[in-house]
Amino acid sequence: MLTKPAGLLLIDKPQDFTSNDVVALSRRILRTKCIGHSGTLDPMATGLLILLLERPATRLQEKFLKLPKVYQAELTLGTETDTWDAQGEAVKTLPVPPLTLEQIRQAAQTLTGKVRQQIPPFSAKKINGRKMYDLAREGTPVQDRFNEIEIFSWTDWTFDSANKIGFTLHCSCGTYVRAMALMLARQLGTTGHLTALRRLSIGPFHVDQALDGLKLKTAPREEIVQFLQEPVL
Predict the structure, then answer these.
(1) 87-128 pLDDT, tens per residue?
(2) 200 near 72, Cβ under 8 Å?
(3) Number of structural domains, the chain?
(4) Which of 5, 126, 168, 179, by CA, is between 20 and 30 Å from 154?
(5) Residues 91 and 119 reside in one and the same domain
(6) Which of 12, 21, 42, 156 is catalytic?
(7) Both 24 and 102 in a single domain?
C-alpha cells in the first residue's frame, strides 16, 4: 500500500483552472482525500496556491489563510465589467483622463493602509450558505458587502498608451485585487477592470518554489511527491 503523502504542496496554478480543479487533480494523482488550500484564486488568475495534505498540515489551514500575499496585476482603464475582471461582460465605459505615473502613485497612496473594500458580486463569498457568484448569475439582488483589509504597498508601476496600469500589490488576507483595481480606477476619475493577475507569494512561500500546475495532468506521482514540504510557518 502506498503511503499517503503529507505536508505542503506549492502549485503554480495555470490560467483558466479553478482552485477546486487543482485540488481535484491533486487528490486523484496523490490518492488522498484530505486536502485543503491557502486561499482561492480566480480562474483568470495564475500563481501560487498552497495545498495542505493530511494532518497536521490541514489543521494549519486557518493560519495559512491569514498570511499576507503579494500579487502582480494589470488594470485596464475605461471599461468596467460585471465581474470587475476580463472574464465579465462590459457594463460601463468612461473616458480616461490624461494621466501620469505620479498621479497614479498618488491615487494609490489614498488606498494604502486600512481600506474598506467592496466584495465583488461575482465572488465565492457566501450569503446564507450560497456563493455570491451563484446569486449574481441568477440575478438575485444582494446588498453590497464590504470588509476591511490592509494594503501595505503598491510597487512596480507601469502605464502605457493603451491605458493599462501594471503594479505589484502587497496586501493582507481577504484582499480582492480586482476590487482594489476598480477603486484605483475610480480614484483616477474613470473606471476599469482587471486584465491580468498573478499571485507571487503567500507569507514566506514564493511561486518560484512551486510545481507547474499543468504537470498535475501528466507527471508521475513520484515526481509530484518530491515537491512536498514540511508544514512549518
Answers:
(1) 999 999 999 999 999 999 999 999 999 999 998 886 666 666
(2) yes
(3) 2
(4) 126
(5) yes
(6) 42
(7) no
